[in-house]
Write a structure and sequence with these properties.
The protein has one domain. Strand 6, helix 9 and strand 7 form a beta-alpha-beta unit. By secondary structure, it is an alpha/beta fold. The chain is about 30% helix and about 10% strand. Strands 4-5-3-6-7 form a five-stranded parallel beta sheet, with helices on both faces. A two-stranded antiparallel sheet has the order 1-2. The two termini are about 20 Å apart. It is built from twelve helices and seven strands.
Length: about 350
């Protein structure tokens, strides 16, 4: 489906990738299989879905949670056809990795940034929150909408939100381990110009969408664990995270880049106090580099959004059952849906 929409040439993508280090969105576009076949799903109300992912307001991480994609279920009616994300290998791998981390026990003072395909990130957060011995705050960062003939499959990520609701911290909890849930599709196909008929629903996260170093220090966070699908396919952090990672590093926070195989192989006998030694070989140093955020050519290829004019979702018939089209939307923080 993606190649039909964008006319992607593997040779072109490969040559583009050779100019810059691989990030999670490059690898997901290059290696990902087609979006799974659809299946009919009974949908919750948008308020019900939002409530299942809502962090208690007393917890500091609640203000970073985004409800944009969850509100997309509103126009779809009671039943919709969404990708069968449970059939994705990466979803099963993320679920197993999170279950193993929960068995080992979460390290103190750690911010988790999970940058997988959206459905896999949802599965990781849900499993970790349900099986960890301590409260987990699953922070959703998805700020695009699904549409027919869209650049990236936001409906796949939406299916993950519906299929894998997390266990949220109890109402009386004063703190929780923060797990930021990202979608590595968000900047996929960066070297291609979408056609006029294509809804460009890529997006960037801005620094305000993530906690700054002062907030992390105030909450006792001393390290960041950045989770990608496979370190063989992702060399550096995603371009829109570069500024935040650099600021965290400059403020003395340790950053560690790991993949699902690493987390799944953690020994069950690992003591929580041994996390530092286990993560030490995964230490990641943020180096200055040119990113999409700095690239005017990328914005020229994009279809609105990214802090400029906001994009308009596709109207008319679409593959969701029982719904109308989608309206325009905007958000705070200076970035927009689309791109």
């Amino acid at each position: 489906m993606r190649s039909r929409i964008l006319g992607i040439s593997v040779a072109l993508l490969a040559s583009g990738c050779s100019l810059r280090p691989w990030t999670p969105s490059v690898s997901v576009a290059f290696w990902a299989e087609d979006v799974p076949q659809g299946r009919e799903v009974v949908l919750p109300q948008s308020t019900e879905l939002a409530r299942s992912w809502q962090i208690p307001p007393e917890i500091a991480w609640s203000r970073f949670s985004k409800g944009t994609l969850m509100s997309a279920v509103g126009p779809m009616g009671d039943v919709a056809t969404l990708p069968d994300v449970r059939s994705l290998d990466v979803v099963a791998e993320a679920d197993a990795a999170a279950a193993n981390v929960a068995r080992v026990g979460l390290p103190q003072g750690t911010l988790w940034v999970v940058d997988l395909r959206g459905a896999a990130s949802c599965a990781f957060a849900a499993r970790l929150s349900r099986e960890a011995r301590e409260p987990v705050a699953s922070v959703v960062t998805f700020i695009n909408w699904p549409a027919e003939d869209a650049v990236v499959p936001a409906d796949e990520t939406l299916a993950g939100l519906v299929a894998f609701p997390p266990k949220q911290p109890p109402p009386d909890a004063k703190s929780a381990h923060p797990v930021f849930v990202l979608d590595s599709w968000r900047l996929a196909y960066r070297f291609d110009k979408p056609s006029d008929e294509t809804y460009d629903n890529r997006y960037m996260l801005m620094q305000g969408d993530l906690p700054d170093a002062a907030t992390l220090h105030a909450q006792g966070i001393t390290r960041v664990v950045y989770v990608v699908e496979d370190l063989d396919d992702a060399e550096v952090e995603e371009d829109d995270l570069h500024a935040s990672f650099g600021a965290w590093q400059a403020a003395g926070l340790g950053i560690h880049m790991v993949d699902l195989d690493f987390l799944g192989a953690l020994p069950p006998s690992l003591d929580r106090a041994d996390w530092a030694a286990r993560l030490a070989p995964q230490a990641y140093w943020v180096r200055d580099r040119y990113t999409l955020v700095d690239d005017p050519v990328f914005y020229g290829r994009a279809r609105a959004g990214f802090g400029l004019a906001f994009g308009r979702p596709f109207y008319g018939s679409h593959h969701f059952h029982g719904g109308g089209g989608y309206g325009t939307h905007s958000r705070g923080g200076g970035s927009g849906s689309g791109g």
